[in-house]
Target: Transcriptional regulator
Amino acid sequence: MCEVCRLQRFNDDFAAALMSKRSSALDTTILILELLKRIPKNWSITAQELQQQLCDAGFSRDIHTIQRHLKTLVESSHFNIDLDDRSKPYGYRWSKNAKGFTANGLSIQESLILRMAEEYLKNLLPSSLMGSMAGFFEEANRNISQTSDPQQDVEWCVQGDCCP
Model:
């Protein structure tokens, strides 16, 4: 093989490896974001429960990968994730003073709609599906409880704009 062909092949192999690493880094970032979205604030969740939620959402990873990422999040100074290691399986939750994580927060109207959906669907959908939505429902409930004037914010619903 001539020198030019060898250089071209090396360049192609290097580019493929670089793209693979970029893809792998992106996959890892997305997985960690999905983990953060699913860690609750008011109760602990195990790595196995998180693994099941991720699997239900299309992210199939082995338990050791999930545990490794959770360990990194607990040890990170950027996130306030608590580890309950009093008994196995260990539990993970946001610290009491943490704001949690969301890529873009829910408006009060979106929170109210999610709250109504949770009430309506809780006995209609499988518990595993409802469980996979727990982080969203929790955020919606937190938004509703923290609003300064919830009555004003729900008037649009009371007036019949959202309810049949």
